[in-house]
Each structure stands twice: as C-alpha cells, then as structure tokens.
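Lab manual, section 2.4: Encoding a predicted structure.

Procedure: take the sequence of the chain (724 residues), apply the prediction step described in section 2.3, and record the output as structure tokens. A sample record is shown.
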Amino acid sequence: MIRRHTAVSTAEPPGSAFAGLALCPAVGFALPPGQAGPVFGQDVWDFSQVTGLPAYMKTADRILDFTSIRNPLWRVVAKEYVAALMLPGHERVRELPKAVRTPHTVQTCNLKLKEAARWLNWLTSRGISRLGDVTEYHCTAYAAERARRLDKGGEVIGQQSPTMARAANVVIELAYYQELFSTDRYPADLQPFDGRAASTVAGLRRTRNGENSTPVVPDEVLQPLLGAALYMVQVLAPHILALRDQVRDLQQPAPSPEPRVRGVAVLEEVVRRRIAEARPLDRLPQGRITLRLSKGTFAPEDPLLQVSLDSLAREAGRSEFNYRHLPALRPVLLRALDAVGVEQPWGRDAATVIRADEQGEIPWTAPIPEDQVRTLERQLRTACIIVTAAVSGMRISEIAELAVGCRLTEEPIPGMVRYRLASKVIKGQPLGGTDDEWIVTEEVHRAVKVAEDLMGSEEPGTLLFGNFAFNLLYKRFRRWVNGPSGQRLGLSPIPEHQVSLRMFRRTLAVALAYRPGGVLATKIALKHVSVATTEGYANRPGGAQSRLLAEVTAEEQQRNLDLTLAEYRKHQQGIQPSGPGARDLVKFFDSVDSALHEQTKKAPHVVLNDQQIRTMLSKRASSLHLGVANYCWFTDPSRALCLKLAQTPNAKKPLIGMCDSTRCPQATHHACHRPVWAEHQTTTKVFLGNLGRGHRAERERLEADLARCEHVLAEIDSTAGNGA
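Recorded output:
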C-alpha cells in the first residue's frame, strides 16, 4: 500500500534563501499537465509525479519526508541543506567555497536527509536544542555510535566503516552549508573532526591507482548460479509459461447455462468423469486447509478436508462451490477419494526434460499447488535478470529501463544475426536518461524474450523489470535451487555468498580480460561474448557498451602487468622463458636488473617496492598478448610472423589465432603453457597409433607435429629446471 503524504508547511523565516521556491521548475524537473510539484516550505517533498525518474527508483525514494526530524527549527535546516544539494547553481549556494558543485539526484538527497535526521534527532535525544551547542565531542561520539555493528542481542560485534563515513560526511557538510541556514547553525569556530575528510574519519583507504574495488563473483558461486539461470531460461521456460497459461484459463470459467435445480447432478457427473478418467481430486493449498479448520467447516478427521471443491465447481461451469450441495455429494466424493485419491492440481503428467546434470530425463515438475506456479514464474523472472546482467554487463539502471519491444535484430551478413537491446543510460546522464542500444549474445536476447512472455499481452513500452530488489530475488532464487525442486532437476547447489549486479559487471570485465577456463568459457562461448561487446563499441562508440569495454581494457592492462611482473620474479629466481622470443625477453629483464642495481647504488638506504618495478615493466607489459599455448610480446609488427602470413603488416594487434609460436621471434613459452603442450602431445600420439598403413602423408605430418611438441616441452622443462 502506498502511503499518501499531506503537504504540511512549516513557517519559513523571511531570511531563507529558498523561501517560497517551487522546487521542480528550479531543479529542471518536468511534471505532467495539471500536476504541481513540492514547494520548499512543505515538510514533505513528493517527487513521485516527476517525468523521467529512473525506473529502478523505489516509490519511497521519490518522497523526501522532513517530519521525522523532531526539532521544528532543524527541519528548516535540513530543507535548506537538501535544497542546496539539489541546486548547486543557486546564487546563494555557488558563493559557498566548499559547496558541492554537482547536482544531487532525488535518491541521493533522500539518503542524505535520512542521515541528517539521524544526526539531528541524536542531538535532540542528548538534550541539545541548538546547533550552537554542538562540540567536537558530539561529532566524534555520534560517528563512533553509528559505526557500531550490533548482533540481535544488541551486543557490539564489530565496526561498519562505510556507515561511519556516511554519518561523518553529513555532519561535515552541515558545516559547509551553514551560511545558508536561517534558523540555526554550528558555532563559528567548529570544524567537525578537525577538518578531516569523512573517509579518513572512518579509516577507509582509497584503492591505489583508482583500481576497481568491486569484487568478482567467485567461480564456485557463479558456475552453479549462471548454470541454473540458463537452465531455467533455455529448458524450463516454455513449460512454466504453458502451465501459467493453463492456470489463467481455468481461473475464468464461463457461467453454466444449466438450471439451478440440476446443480447437484452436474457436479456428480464431474466427479464420476474423474473416476472414469482416473484423474485425482485436487488438493487444497495448506493455507485454505487451515482456514477451513478455523471456520469449523470441516472436522480435522474429515477425509474431504484436503479436497478442493471449488475446482469441481469450475469444471462444472460454476464460479464457486455451493456448500448446500455437500451432503448430497459426499457419498460420490468419498468413492472418488478411494478410487483416484487426491493430488496437487498443477503439473500432472509433466513433459520430461534432460536433468541439468545430464543424468537422464525427468518430468520437469512434480504436481504442485497454484501458489507454486506463481513461485516458478518469479524464479524464471529472476533467472532472466541474472542471465542479462551476467552475460551483457548492463547496470541495474539499464536493465530496469528494458521494456516490451526492446529486442531488435538485424542480419548484416546472410546467415549471421546481430542481437540488440534498446534501453537507456541513466548514470551520468540528464534526468530521463539517454536512449542507447546494447549488442548482446543470443542467450541474453532469449532471456529478455522470456521476460516479455512472462508479462503477457502488455503494450509496447511497458517495463519488463522496473524497480526490483536483486538482493532479495537472489536469495529466493538460491533457496529454490538448493531446495527440493532444484535438486530434483539436478541443479548444482549455490554456496551462500553475497552477489550483486555490480559484481556481475565486474566479473564479466575480468573474464573478458583474463579469459579463464571458468564458468563463462564453459557455459557460454566466451569468444561470442567478447565479440558482442567489441561489436557494441564499434556500433556505438559513445554508448554505454564502450564504458564496459573500457573496464575490460583496464583489466587487461592490469593482467599484463601482473603476468610480466610474475615472469620477472621467476627470471630473478633463475627460471627463464623458452621459445624464439626468449632471448629478447631475458635481455629486457636483465636491463631492468641493471637499472635497479644503479638505483640501489645511488640510494642504498632506499628499499625499492613493487610499484617502482611495475613502472619499469609497464611498457613491455603493454605489448603482451595471450595465446592458448604461448605469450606474444608484440613489440615490433614488422617481425610478427602472423602478420606476414596474413599480409597485414600495418595491423595494430597480432592475429593470435594464427600464431606459430615455434617460429615467431616474438613468442615465448612458459611453465603455465606446459599442460597445453602436454595434452597436445598425448592427443597426437593417440592419432598416430590409430593410423593405418595407407596414411603415409598424414603420418609424416603428425610425426613432425609431435617432434615440434616434444621440442617445446623439452625447452620448457630445461629452462624451468635451471631455477635455484
């Protein structure tokens, strides 16, 4: 239920910079015709009617309620503070030296207001009625109290540094804006937390070099999670949608033209038909059984307690069962109960599907009650969100803007289909967002189609997902997968671990950069995801997909630097690379050693750290490209064998798929490549053993390939064996 707020006004002092200000025109918000937005003097600012607010915003986040602040004077302070955050270009705000220069969104202002209300009400609870009485002690005590992490019993079990930072930030910002405040303000000499930043107060450290601090989803969580989501979208979706349609059809029975006097006879005919067709009677949901017992309609020992009588009435063309007919129908109902029994009504005779673990076939569902059909719909919708986020890298704000009719396809080359999604970019864009398109894989396109089918016959433009709490949806999805229903289908259990849509985007960027043999490479063709991402950037260079590709590029640079540093450390230990390009790489590492030695002689008391070494290695690391069985140090395009073979001497990147690492002067082999060569050696030997006498040319080719493979393995082993 949506709570309606009444616009209550607080008396405004004449000195307020925002007195009588209509907020929507001032901020630049558009309203539907005939709607009046909030005014500064009102104690509740309701922006629900504003056109263009992001779809992912909750209704509660669109309403700023100042009535939670107990001190009436401080309500005006809070309103002036929030108005200044929304209007940084206001003539009085832009004069403040420490005011924030970027307009805050309604959602951010709501978060700031709630934190300000906590701080001001905390002061009220301590007997302070004037901001002029606030001291450094109050600021420090409040921040420390907000940082406490409590258990269910109220005991302190730790510290919440991000919460402490948010609390300290509002306390500090009220000092930044106090020249605007017309009813109360801090003492003139008070600098909360001695002028330190909120992150410093909370002990938070910024990541070095602007590194992304969002963690990836661990493979042991992503593997079963994405596997279950894909299984639902690709295998179970048609059956769930068909069952949903059956439920909807039977919930709208046509009125029976039969006279009332024949009501009992029609119902008896329905029951006898069920006996003849060996169809069990329908079982009631547990909630309805409990309701029957509470009303005293049936005794606990009554054999008909669990039988759904309304389902028989609907089958007879009635909207509901008339209990006056029960005494006359009881004998035939008891006979039916003995003959065919009672069973859950939906999912009987379900079609068989291959289990997720490929251990045979199984009916896609056991008989279930009607509420479980709705549960399956919700889990399928969550699966669509998971596939879309994990494989496309779209943000939650962009997924929330997907609407019916957003799926687009084109065939640039006969037989090849490009899948696109039309959405909006919200982050960093003006109110209402900017239209954009994502080029995605077929898996994502299919997931969005399933989401459209779940909506039913909705008008184009209707939001598919809108506002949703993914944390709650994910917990329910994991509970279903780990429960009897998911385990019956052979789904792998999902370990308990926090997962967010932001982590999906980060995981995709890392997967495309490092190309592990993990979940995305096995469940989905990782190459196809990479191609779709790159193609999306090429199609719309300034679009949202280019930002994802920028994240991927940053991860690739970090990956290359880490790998180069690791090989340099091995070089220092005496473990050298092999292959045609090994001599150049060792020569480069020796030059780094010499440079470090010179620095040490000049400053013997200075200890060199990894960051200084990374700086020296960064140029060579930028030339690194990963092959399946080698590293390519693409320092000189004119020496690249792949470009010579393809006759593309001006290419900016190597054609890594054409690499012959035993001949290219820029290719090296390392210990991490040994398993690939060893597997190739084993496979080649098997093929040679299976060749008949008549395949002389093929035998010679395989023997040469085997000799080359054994030579590479011998080189890797010999260089690795020289280590200390």
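Check your result against the sample. The longest helix spans residues 219-250.
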